[in-house]
Amino acid sequence: MKCSALAVLLGLIAPFAMAAEAPAAATKADPAKGKAIVDTVCAACHGADGNSAASTNPSLAGQHPEYIYAQLNAFKKGERKNPIMAGQVANLSDADMRNLAAYFGEQKPKERAGTNKDLMAAGKKIYQGGIAATGVPACMACHGPSGAGIPVQFPRLGSQHAAYVVSSLNNYKAATDRKNAIMSPIAAKLSDAEMKAVAEYIAGLR
Fold first, then answer.
1. Out of 93, 113, 151, 198, which residue is the most buried by the measure of CB atoms under 10 Å away?
2. Mean pLDDT over residues 140-156, rounded?
3. Is 187 found in the same domain as 162?
4. Cα 188 from chain centre
5. Phi and psi (nearest 5°) for 79?
């Protein structure tokens, strides 16, 4: 899989998301079979254990399987627009996507930390309390205080690359690659500085 700033699967960022888009009902999956696909297809961009080395590619380790499965389906159906991911999922069966989701869900996320203390402090305020003046709700209302998210409903954000979170928020704002009834209106109200701040804070959540 060729790496690209657009090579995304979910999306921590929900996102900022990233509220999960119509996850399917859980069925029996085989993580071992998912690993075989990861080793040959996904590892180059997302890491063999789901912890990507490049900040432009999302880390998938520990992400809710329902969310990953939903995103793979969205790429396959063309609901999410990304030429790289569209090519990667084209030949995946429904079982393949479920197996991939199960494998990544079992992996342990690598702990990260924000690099700018001032931005982290500002981001913490937004994540925990929102921005009353512009009607931005607290991120933790959906994604939890630790960024763990809520299975089936909202994706995990904790320890996600800050750069990927910013990219996802901008995509929601532009309604290009990602369109979501919850995240798009929220992202539209965030300034570039606010996006960077909350992304820095999210990177250190665990």
1. 198
2. 95
3. yes
4. 18
5. -75, -25
Residue 88 lies in a domain: yes
> 125 and 93 share a domain?
no
Which structure tokens are listed for 21?
């888009």
The yes-or-no verdict on residue 172 having pLDDT over 70 is: yes
- The total domain count for the chain is 2
Q: Global pTM?
A: 0.85
For residues 123 and 193, membership in a common domain is answered with: yes
**What is the rounded CA–CA span in Å between residue 9 and residue 59?**
9
The answer, yes or no, to whether residue 49 has pLDDT greater than 80, is yes
Q: Which domain holds residue 156?
A: 117-203
Q: In the 3-class helix/strand/coil scheme, how is the chain assigned residue by residue?
A: CCCCCCCCCCCCCCCCCCCCCCCCCCCCCCHHHHHHHHHHHHHHHHCCCCCCCCCCCCCCCCCCHHHHHHHHHHHHHCCCCCHHHHHHHCCCCHHHHHHHHHHHHHCCCCCCCCCCHHHHHHHHHHHHHCEHHHCECCCHHHHCCCCCCECCCECCCCCCCHHHHHHHHHHHHHCCCCCCCCHHHHHHCCCHHHHHHHHHHHHCCC
